[in-house]
Design brief:
This protein is α/β, with parallel strands linked by helices. It has three domains: 103 residues, Glucose Oxidase, domain 1, CATH 3.50.30; 107 residues, PtsI, HPr-binding domain (Enzyme I, Chain A, domain 2, Orthogonal Bundle), CATH 1.10.274; 310 residues, Phosphoenolpyruvate-binding domains (TIM Barrel). It has 23 helices and 16 strands. The strands form two sheets. It has an eight-stranded mixed β-sheet. α13 packs across α14, α14 crosses α15 and α20 packs across α22. The longest helix has 29 residues. The protein starts with a strand and ends with a helix. The relative contact order is 0.09.
Length: 572
């Protein structure tokens, strides 16, 4: 028996025999004296075949998974028609006289590297989409016969180096009970789709394909992020019981969909969800979120060759506000720049993009972009409960300038005869330590705070969360982080304002009791975390946790905090 650790990508327990998905051989000989006309024709033929494939996969996904998940393949089809992507390959063939295989490989690697260098986890995972599309094209150029996972007709656990979105879309949950992959993260499309299909998955295992053979008995623990190879009878029975317990737990969670989030002693907090596009709303509504705590608008600007128009943005914001039916919707203004490049926007190359020209800094400099977005937001405000949030605020001057521009655009719209809501709350993210330290000053000039812990942690600990060598310093429970969060909450409450959190920490079962005790008003997380969090909060007493939370601020280490919370939770 062997245990392999990875990332819990899709919750659940699966027990079945392994099907090891072998990676085709995509190696080829680079030619530098090829006939450009011939190679471009070969490329065009491969692209056409790939488009037919993807259109069929998209059609199947729409039937099996719904339009939201099938949208992934609509995006893949757009990649195959993207003038910069395809034009880059054609130009490479013309300029370098290389064969089509080389052009596909070289250009796709440029795009893959660009996405992988981004600090945003969601965008980082988009490299997998480019990889998926380019391999399909390369496969046709090399004459590789693609395996169809849809043909699997017995209980199986897929083991792969990487499971692409198009692989995942072919899986039949009736037979594919789970999967494990050497690479990938929770925000990869395959992980998102696995959660939608309720297929247990563990990714980032690094060694599944080298440690597991076809036919091995496998246990996938998508709750803890563990893969067990050739388990003994005792382990198998224990996991069968764990699987049964989890299924019962899901039934209990489902009963909470329409419930308010209240503690044992009757204290209500708001459980909201984070989204990237209007397509994410189905999961938000199905999981009973009480609002949107973070709408990342940057995804409206990506995957295209020009800025979105005011009308495009207005329609996206209006859709979200209307579908949330009066529940609060916090929309963050454009958070892009530095390492998050837009091909149509010439931004300076920076030595340290994490601390560079991005978010509100970029918007205040490029006011034409900022004002267009603000107009769209203001026009959409009458269709729901809109709250506007500015990211990466470091100084009061930035906040005041952003608010002044917002007020100017509001007045222009009113003068034009446009309707604008009079009840829009304006807030800011707290992601910079210095901002948290003077939160008392900011609290006088905003309606709310939302703590962005993903960045707050890495800035406070001076540890890039994407750098594996310093990942041990990415500590959500570190007393320094807890003290900063406490300062923000206290500053907000002193001015009669509310404080929320939209980082991963908000849905963390260890952090929740502390945040509840500190008085956090709104917890915003991935939609699939809402019901488990609601269930946990319903077992906790805010009054009892207030003293406990203050005690956590005085602990010496992150591990001390973790152990103290674990001990307290085990006594419930």
């Amino acid at each position: 028996m062997k245990q392999i650790s990875g990332i819990a990508a899709s919750a659940g327990i699966a027990i079945a025999n392994a099907y090891v998905l072998e990676e085709p051989d995509y190696s080829f000989e680079k030619k530098t004296d090829a006939d450009p006309a011939v190679e471009k024709e070969r490329l065009e033929t491969a692209l056409d075949k790939a488009k037919v494939d993807l259109a069929q996969i998209k059609e199947k996904a729409e039937v099996d998974l719904g339009e939201e998940e099938a949208a992934i393949f609509a995006a893949h089809l757009l990649v195959l028609s993207d003038p910069e992507f395809i034009g880059g390959m054609q130009a490479h063939i013309d300029n370098e006289k290389v064969n089509a295989e080389s052009a596909v490989h070289d250009v796709s690697q440029t795009f893959i590297s660009m996405f992988e260098l981004m600090d945003n986890e969601y965008m980082k995972e988009r490299a997998a989409d480019i990889r998926d599309v380019s391999k399909r094209v390369l496969g046709y150029l090399l004459g590789i016969q693609m395996k169809s996972l849809a043909a699997i007709d017995e209980a199986t656990i897929i083991i792969a180096k990487d499971l692409t979105p198009s692989d995942t879309a072919q899986l039949n949950p009736q037979f594919v009970k789970g999967f494990a992959a050497d690479i990938g993260g929770r925000t990869s499309h395959s992980a998102i789709m696995a959660r939608s299909m309720e297929i247990p998955a563990v990714v980032g295992t690094k060694e599944s394909t080298t440690s597991i053979h076809n036919g091995d008995t496998i246990i996938i623990d998508g709750l803890e992020g563990v893969v067990i190879v050739q388990p003994d009878e005792e382990t198998t029975q224990a996991y069968k019981q764990k699987k049964e317990n989890y299924e019962q737990q899901k039934l209990e969670w489902a009963k909470l969909v329409n419930e308010a989030t209240k503690t044992v002693d009757g204290h209500h907090v708001e459980l909201a969800a984070n989204i990237g596009t209007p397509d994410d709303l189905t999961g938000v509504i199905n999981n009973g979120a009480e609002g949107i705590g973070l709408y990342r608008t940057e995804f409206l600007y990506m995957g295209r060759d020009q800025l979105p128009t005011e009308e495009e943005q207005f329609n996206a914001y209006k859709t979200v506000l209307e579908r949330m039916e009066g529940k609060p919707v916090v929309i963050r203004t454009l958070d892009i720049g530095g390492d998050k490049e837009l091909p149509y926007l010439e931004l300076p190359k920076e030595m340290n993009p994490f601390l560079g020209f991005r978010a509100i800094r970029l918007c205040l400099e490029h006011q034409d972009i900022f004002r267009t977005q603000l107009r769209a937001l203001l026009r959409a405000s009458t269709f729901g409960n809109l709250k506007i949030m500015f990211p990466m605020i470091a100084a009061l001057e930035e906040l005041r300038e952003a608010k002044a521009i917002l007020e100017e655009e509001k007045q222009k719209l009113v003068n034009e005869g446009q309707q604008v809501s009079d009840s829009i709350e304006v807030g800011m993210m707290v992601e910079i330590p210095s901002t948290a330290v003077i939160a008392d000053l900011f609290a006088k000039e905003v309606d709310f705070f939302s703590v962005g812990t993903n960045d707050l942690i890495q800035y406070t600990m001076a540890a890039d969360r994407m750098n594996e060598q310093v990942s041990y310093l990415y500590q959500p429970y570190h007393p320094a982080i807890l003290r900063l969060v406490n300062m923000v909450i206290e500053a907000a409450h002193k001015e009669g304002k509310w404080a929320g959190m939209c980082g991963e920490m908000a849905g963390d079962e260890i952090a929740i009791p502390i945040l509840l005790g500190l008085g956090l008003d709104e917890f915003s997380m991935s939609a699939t975390s809402v019901l488990p969090a609601r269930s946990q909060i319903a077992k906790l007493s805010k009054q009892e946790l207030e003293t406990f939370a203050k005690e956590m601020l005085m602990k010496n280490t992150s591990e001390d905090v973790h152990e103290a919370v674990k001990t307290r939770l085990s006594s419930l």
